[in-house]
Amino acid sequence: MQEAISSYLAAIKLDPNFAEAMNNLGLAYDQQGRAEEAVALYDRALRIKPNYPEAHLNYAIILERMGYLPEAKKHYQSFLSRVPPHLDDVVVSVKARLPHL
């Protein structure tokens, strides 16, 4: 995991607007229990690339887990409005969560 984190950090250093690297680094940090750092990275990625569905999804998941339900709902909805075909299987899960937020 540390090797992946180092790679994402290096990529962001080379390109401070590399939203995909920020999203992936956020996932890695989240897996390490570094939720606040992950949230900051998802937020930063979405400021750079507002229509990035995977970042909206990851942000929504962590916000829901942290108890920020209205914000999570907003990001789930943003994900659903932009979902790429390769994530169609995730749509069912997201739609099932929305009524509970």
Kindly describe this structure.
- The protein has 101 residues and is mostly helical.
- It has a single domain (2-100), classed as Serine Threonine Protein Phosphatase 5, Tetratricopeptide repeat (Alpha Horseshoe).
- The protein has helices at residues 2-14, 19-31, 35-48, 53-66, 69-82, 88-97.
- The protein is globular.
The CATH homologous superfamily name equals Tetratricopeptide repeat domain
Kindly provide the radius of gyration, computed on alpha-carbon positions and rounded to a whole number of angstroms: 13 Å
* CATH fold title: Serine Threonine Protein Phosphatase 5, Tetratricopeptide repeat
Which architecture would the CATH scheme give at its second level? Answer: Alpha Horseshoe
Broad CATH class: Mainly Alpha
Largest pleated sheet: none
Order of helices and strands: HHHHHH
Domain module count: 1
Topology:
Blueprint: H1 2-14, H2 19-31, H3 35-48, H4 53-66, H5 69-82, H6 88-97
Helix pairs in contact: 1-2, 2-3, 2-4, 3-4, 4-5
Q: Brief description of this entry?
A:
By secondary structure, this protein is mainly α. The protein has 6 helices and no strands. The chain has a single domain (2-100), classed as Serine Threonine Protein Phosphatase 5, Tetratricopeptide repeat.
Jot down its keywords.
101 residues; mainly alpha; Serine Threonine Protein Phosphatase 5, Tetratricopeptide repeat; single chain; 0% strand
